[in-house]
Amino acid sequence: MPAEWAPQSAVMLTWPHAGTDWQDRLGLVDPVFEAIAKAVLRFEHLVISCEDPERLRTLAESLNDWARRHGLPGQVLASTLPANDTWARDHGPIAVVDDGLRLLDFRFNAWGDKFPWDKDDALNRALCEAGLFGRTPLEAIDFVLEGGSIESDGQGTILTTSECLLSPSRNPDYDRNQIEGILRDTLGAERVLWLNHGYLAGDDTDSHIDTLARFVAPDHICYVRCDDESDEHYAALTAMEDELRQFRTADGRPYTLTALPWPQACYGDEGERLPATYANFLIINGAVLLPVYGVPGDDEACRVLQELFPDREVIAIDCQPLIHQHGSLHCVTMQLPEGVVRP
């Protein structure tokens, strides 16, 4: 499984529509998706699906016209397809490279049957049949796995959380050793690093790794840290930090660790805490798209990410509307490696 910083051809977005939980917030969330789309088009192509055909037509035309007027390299490939929701990271295909490039279509059951999922589970096959993945083969895998639950260093190490992958609502017949076998056979995982601690209030995913800790190089992990002992996250994230310090690279060295700022708490309309995290960034060709939330930690997060990726532009995108549905920027995107999309 390539690392996210490997060369890409496109980013996939499943656009919100009135039939999703975004219905009452479309006017707020649409501009977030448009900002992500325009940032991506500056560097690579964009694959968009939307259940609303008129919205998709208008969107594709306007984005392609905008990209042409600005002389950008990216183009929009679009198809009207049904979807339950918008979390492309988790229902999108996962790429692997062995003798050639393949896309793996794992089963998706909405994080353990928490929400309707039938349309999302069928979306990858529909995108493939519509030609949006070019000639890249799509292989169905009879195993529930979400893209946000795994991190790859591109060299055979997978980072994940036991809270998610061992959840009985996903693959109840598999224990830890059997799951490692699946990751080995499908993703080429030579090692699996399991975090047994880590928590984010408002998260529906059972502690997806992409909200907590991310590879930024094969020997370097950034992670969320909470220094406020009165915060409900302090104990779990401190225990997670201790686990990260114990991890070793494949050649036995400690990982370089960089703590990300802890954003000021954000709350929903009913007073519930929302899952704001700076770990939910997206690496693309030449840039890193960083979610920000209109809180004091945003500037420091931009500075830290720029230090982590000195050769890429850090583009801050206001994702406060996204966390009202319990996800953020990385959650709504899925990168497609070089060679998949050929407009």
From TrEMBL:
Pfam families: PAD_porph. Keywords: Hydrolase. InterPro entries: Peptidyl-Arg-deiminase_porph. It comes from the Bacteria. PANTHER family: AGMATINE DEIMINASE-RELATED. This is Agmatine deiminase family protein. It comes from Marinobacter halodurans. The lineage of its organism: Bacteria, Pseudomonadati, Pseudomonadota, Gammaproteobacteria, Pseudomonadales.
